[in-house]
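Changelog note: in this version the structure field was regenerated for every chain. One regenerated record is shown below for reference.
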Amino acid sequence: MKNLLIIGAGQYGMVAKEIAESMKCFEKIDFVDDVYPSAVGKICDINKLIHEYDSAVVAIGNTELRLNLIKGLCEIGYEVPTLIHEKAYVSPLAKIGIGCFIEPMVVVHTAVSVETGCILSAGVILNHNSVVHEGCHINCGSVVKARAEIKAGTQTGYNEVCDTEKVEHMKQHEKLPVAV
């Protein structure tokens, strides 16, 4: 059995803990967080905790911070597992990078590639031969079409149908002002 340290105890942290518990392979699961009162330490304490926890994941929504912390965990010597909920399906021919979260009812089809630090929320379908580059968050109910390529750092909306052109279009317009 392994001990898992979850960096971040907010909403993503709670989801990560539920997924990790469903995997039944961690003896102990704890959090580090700069504000969560029952965390075993703050984020700056991860260096000191390597002797008690052999595995760590980053449960923080900010893509750049998540990817930087994953890199730092690897440099310190933590194993950075991918958390796959017991009720998700991942094809044996799919390639999943480190530090990803795959929530319940996700389907990852044949020859799909998911890079480091991605979050696949409940009900996502990644159709065959698609590529999800690092740091993406594919939100609940979204479908990535066969052979689509999703650019690094993309966050989809809920129930989106994503192909390469649609995601590029979304990225071009995401900085437009929003009417209040």
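Spot check on this record: The longest helix spans residues 63-76. Confidence is low (pLDDT under 50) at residues 169-180.
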